[in-house]
Amino acid sequence: xxxxxxxxxxxxxxxxxxxxxxxxxxxRAADANGGLFWAPAKSRIYAVLPQLVARGFATSRExxxxxxxxxxxxxxxKAGRAALQTWxxxxxxFEPERVPILLKLYFGDLLDPEILxxxxxxxxxxxxxxxxxxxxxxxxxxxxxxxxxxxVRHGLEWARAMIRWAASAEQELTARLGATHV
Amino acid sequence: xxxxxxxxxxxxxxxxxxxxxxxxxxxRAADANGGLFWAPAKSRIYAVLPQLVARGFATSRExxxxxxxxxxxxxxxKAGRAALQTWxxxxxxFEPERVPILLKLYFGDLLDPEILxxxxxxxxxxxxxxxxxxxxxxxxxxxxxxxxxxxVRHGLEWARAMIRWAASAEQELTARLGATHV
DNA sequence: ACCACCATGTAACAGGTTACATGATTAA
DNA sequence: TTAATCATGTAACCTGTTACATGGTGGT
Lengths: 182, 182
Known about the structure:
Two copies of one chain form a homodimer.
Chain A: H1 7-16, H2 23-32, H3 42-54, E1 58-63, E2 71-76, H4 78-89, H5 100-106, H6 113-135, H7 138-142, H8 146-181
Antiparallel strand pairs in A: 1-2
Chain A binds a DNA duplex through residues 6, 8, 22-24, 40-44, 46-47, 65, 67-72.
C-alpha cells in the first residue's frame, strides 16, 4: 500500500530531491517557472512543510544566522522519496479546467455584446503576453533539460490555442453584432 | 458598490434566469454541458442555494409532490439578477491552470522514461476522447446558440492543443529513450 | 429482482487564498 | 529614503470533494 500525497506535497518533495532547502527557497523555486504549472501561496508552503516532517517525508534543522532571520532547512527522507516516487508513477489526472470566461460566454445572451467582445479581447491579450513571455526564454531554462523544455512547450501550445479561439470568437461575435446593428 | 459573488454563484444564478428550478434541476443543467466548464458537486449546489436566498439573490418555495419527494423551487430576484450582471460585466480571470502531468514531467529525471511516456499517452488518449465527444454534437447544442457553440469550440481547441503537445512530447521522449538505450 | 430516476441534505475532510505581523540588511 | 531581500508564520475565510443517509416510483 502506497502512501497518498497531494500534488503540492509532491511538488515540494520533488524540489527537495535537489538538495536541502528552506520554505523561502522552495517558494522561489516554485515561482521561478513563472508559476507555470505549480505555485502554491507561501502560507501554504509553510503549512505543508511541518506536515511533511510529521509524516516522516522530510527532516528539518534550524540554521542560526546573524544579520538575517534564522531558517529551517528541510531534507528529503527515504520515506519521502518513496512517497514521491509512488505519486510520480501514478497515471496523471486529466480534466478540462474551469474557465471563467466560458461561464460568462455561456450566458452571453444576458450581456451587452460589446462587453462580451471586450472580455474576449482581454483573454487574447493575456494569452498573447503569456506566449511572448514563454518564447523569450531560449537558453536559460529550455536547454537545461528536456523536461523543463516540454513544460514550456505545453504552455505555448495552450497559449496558442487560446489565441486562436479568442480570435475566431471575436470575429464571429463582431459579425453578429454588425448584422443586428445595421 | 457591487455585490461580490463567486463563479459558482454566478453559474446557478445564470441558470435561474431561465426559470424556476430546483437544486436537482440545476445539477442536471450544469452536467448537461458535459460538465465542460462548470459543474459543482451536488452537495455544493445544495449548500449554495440557501446562501443565495439568505443574501436576497433568490427566493424559494416548496412544492409538495405525491409519489415523489417534495422539492424546493428557486426563483431569481431583482437583486440576484443585478449581482449576476455585475459579475458578468467584470473582466474575466485569466490564469494558466495547474496541470498535474506537467508536475510529473518536470520531475521526469526521477522517473523511468517508459512510465513517463505512458503518462503522456494517457493524456493524449483522454484528450482524443474528449475531442471526439465534442465533435459528436452538431445539431443538439451547437446550433442552439452562438454562445454554447463557442464554448464547445473552446473545448475543441484545448483538446487539439493537448493532443498536439502530447504527440510531440511522446516523439521526443521516445527518441531520447532509443538514443540512450542503443 | 434490480436499476435508474427523483429529491434533499449532512458530515468529514482537503486544499487553497489573502491579509496581517515582524524586523534586520543592503542596494539604488 | 525607499524598496527589495531574507525569513517565518498566524488568522480568517472560501471553495470544493466524497461518502453517507433516506425512500418511493417506474421501467426491463
